[in-house]
Each structure stands twice: as structure tokens, then as C-alpha cells.
Amino acid sequence: MGKIVLARVDSRLIHGQVATNVSKSAGANALFVADDHSANDEFTKNIILGAGSRTGHKIRVLKEDGAVRYWNDRKYDDFNVILITKNIEVMYKIIKAGVPVKHLNLGGLPLVPGAEKIINEVSINKEQLALLIDLQNSFPDMEIYFQATPSLKKVMLEEAIKIFK
Question: pTM value?
Fold first, then answer.
């Protein structure tokens, strides 16, 4: 049975920091991207597969509901997986659908109108904060934090909540 060693929200999906530092720190041997656009676009899918495969990790580009189905059907085989989505909304749906996550890392979301900067690399809006709070309330043992790379300070969800008050 596989295990999700880390769930990460990063608008860039797989990039150098994820493929090297984050995966090493998490103890992952597989990077699974859950993104409908990437799964349905062969060019984007091949770029992701190419970027990740140079690291020796097993790379899968899944449709968002496919990430749930793969867990339900095969428990991600024997992989130690970093599950990556582009946004909080998709990660929220996947976790709520029953995919078990113990550590949720918000690692890369650009500043857009209506969002508040939590750390330099991550900004969220009130609706996204509400989704994270709901996840925390639904799964009290889940660690939810903001951190671009393992060498930087973790900012916990509780600290992010204070920014919105």
C-alpha cells in the first residue's frame, strides 16, 4: 500500500525545488500531479513527465477525479507520494473525497487581487482560507502549513488566520 507523504499546492506543479529538495525532505519516490488541464493536454503532460523523470521519481499526471480513483482502487500502489495540485480548491476536493493526507503544504501560490500574502511565495484569499479551516476542522490531525522549501520557516495555518483578522 502506498502512502501520501506530502500533499502540496503549488501553481507551478513540478519544478526544481519540488523535484529535489521537497521530495528528498518528504522521503518521496513518486510525484503525482492532479490537474485536469495537464492530464488532458499532451504537450503539458509530456513537459511534466520529462521534468520529473530526470530525478528518478515515478511521475504520474492524473485527472483530478483520477487521483481519487487511483487511491480508492490501488492505494497508490507501493509509492511514497507527493500529491501536487495547482490550487487549494482541487486539493480540498481530493481530500474531502477520502484521499488521506497528514501533511498539507502550501508552497507556491502567486499574489493576485483579493489575496493576502502569507509568505513571500504564497498568497490566498478568504474563500481559500475558509477551505483550509474546514479541512483543519474535519481532519484535526492534519498539519497545514505554508512553506516554499524545507529550508524556510514553516508558517502554520493558525498564523495565517491571524493575517485575515
Answer: 0.95
Beta bridge partners of 8: 84, 105
User: Any idea what DSSP says for residue 64?
Assistant: H
Q: What is the pLDDT of residues 135-146, one digit of tens each?
A: 999 999 999 999
* CA distances in angstroms from 38 to 22, 84, 101, 124, listed in the order given: 21, 12, 22, 22
CB atoms within 10 A of CB 87: 15
Pairing of strands 58-62, 30-34: parallel
Cell numbers linked to 137: 476542522
Looking up cell 513571500, which residue turns up?
120
Per DSSP, what are the bridge partners of residue 146? 106, 155
Contact 80, 5 (CB under 8 A): yes
**Is 113 buried (19+), middle (13-18) or exposed (0-12) by CB count in 10 A?**
exposed
**What residues are paired with 62 via a beta bridge?**
34
